[in-house]
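Encode chain A's predicted structure.
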Amino acid sequence: MKRVFGARKEKTPPPTVEEATERINKRGDGVDDKIKKLDAELVKYREQIKRTRPGPAQEAVKARAMRILKQKKMYEGQRDMLYSQTFNLEQVSFATEGIKDAQQTMSAMKAANKELKGTMKTLKIDDIDKMQDEMLDLVDYSTEIQESLGRSYNVPDDLDEEELMGELSALEAEMGETEHDGGVPSYLQPEKDGDLESELNLPAAPSTAHGAQANPQAADEYGFPAVPRASLRT
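Encoded structure for chain A:
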């Protein structure tokens, strides 16, 4: 079969933009090297023209220099053409990369949009409002619990306004008396000696010891009654 119809040739894939750019850059580098070599030859011919006297010899050197200059101009034209092709390939590469970036951006945005839609389906405004109402009820219930626990057991609940005003008037009168007494409440003021003795009604201290009259001046250095010396003997 291959002899009759021939073998099918495999198609080589076309070069990519990067491969074509690299190949053209290599060609441009080769042309630049040739131009540098021609510049070096032109420098030599220029020195020869300066050293040669006018005449046939100088004209021959000028002819060779003119030929080298023409080659240089040809290579410079090729180099400019290669640079133009490289610039066009770079523009195509930039556009291609931009399209790829746009495709990736669109794919990412589509995925994010799909995820956002899936998330929004799980959130409902009615559920959020219901949750907020429940939170408010819980806060109010917590406040009621705190107020209930903070009640005092010693404060009577059957006090009326008249009793309250009476207590306030009594406190006001007591505060007025305190101001006249130097700012000390009546229950903190010291009582007089006569009043204290009359209230206590204590008996008087005995004036004799063992049936003998005590000497009011017989006291030791600490103010206690002096002990007779006879009592100190054994």
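Residues 208-214, 230-234 have pLDDT under 50 and may be disordered.
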